Amino acid sequence: MALFSEKIVLDLPDCDISYYPNFLKEEANSYFKAVRDGIPWQQDEITIFGKTYLQPRLTALYGNNGKTYSYSNITMKPLDFTPELLTIKSTIEKEVGTEFSTCLLNYYRDGKDSNGWHSDDEKELGKNPIIASISLGAERFFHLRHKKNKTIKHKMLLEHGSLLLMKGETQHHWHHQIAKTAKKIGERVNLTFRIIK
Ligand SMILES: O=C(O)CCC(=O)C(=O)O
Ligand SMILES: [Fe+2]
Q: CA 164 from chain center: how many Å?
């Protein structure tokens, strides 16, 4: 593992977001296969404004303290971390200087899978959550939109093996999404490490 990772700090108001391309280096390929093939992915039903939908992606939850995570009317119970997830977790912890308890994983099977506008502001994450998001597989655009002034937007490609770090007041002021795309693209997995107390 190299000592230094290249770090790009986003120049946007009211947020603290940095991006580390190629964070996982040559290990990214084997992590991608291990996570895609080794995780018991589930597709949950979510309820939004009283209507029930199948979530447009697969998910899984891992954690080391048994704490559940609830959003969009579903409550997920954590599984025990796998060796690969623990290695990724400690690689991030060394860079960031923070210990994470939980990882929410997303599997986008193709361009039709998505993750709608939201902020990671569930109460179990605390006031100013730190969220470390690893991308593996196909590149997808990550869209950011300011909550008060929706004309302030930003879009960035999340590359294979990259780390996106969101902290401070980011979740108070910004929504983010992974939009559907009509382009023919492959599978992507995303790992968002969080702290649930
Ligand atoms: O797939 C991504 O990069 C974003 C995932 C996300 O926003 C979330 O799980 O809260
Ligand atoms: Fe999110």
A: 8
Atom 10, ligand 1: residue with shortest CA distance: 120
Locate the ligand 1 atom nearest the alpha carbon of residue 177 and give its number.
Answer: 7
Domain 8-194: state its class: mainly beta
The reported pTM is 0.96
Residues 63-112 pLDDT 10s: 999 999 998 888 999 999 999 999 999 999 999 999 999 999 999 999 99
Nearest CA to ligand 1 atom 3: 190
Domain regions of the chain by residue span: 8-194
ipTM of the modeled complex:
0.99
Which of 178, 180, 189 has most ligand 1 atoms within 8 Å of its beta carbon, as the pocket-test mutant?
Answer: 178
In the numeric block, the tokens 């891992």 are attached to 62
For the stretch 131-147, what's the b/e string if a residue is b when 16 or more beta carbons lie within 10 angstroms of its beta carbon?
Answer: bbbbbbbbebebbbbbe
Listed residues: CB within 5 A of ion ligand 2: 120
Instruction: Walk across the sheet containing 174-178 and list its strands.
Output: 115-118, 174-178, 140-146, 153-158
H or E segment and range at residue 38 = helix 28-38
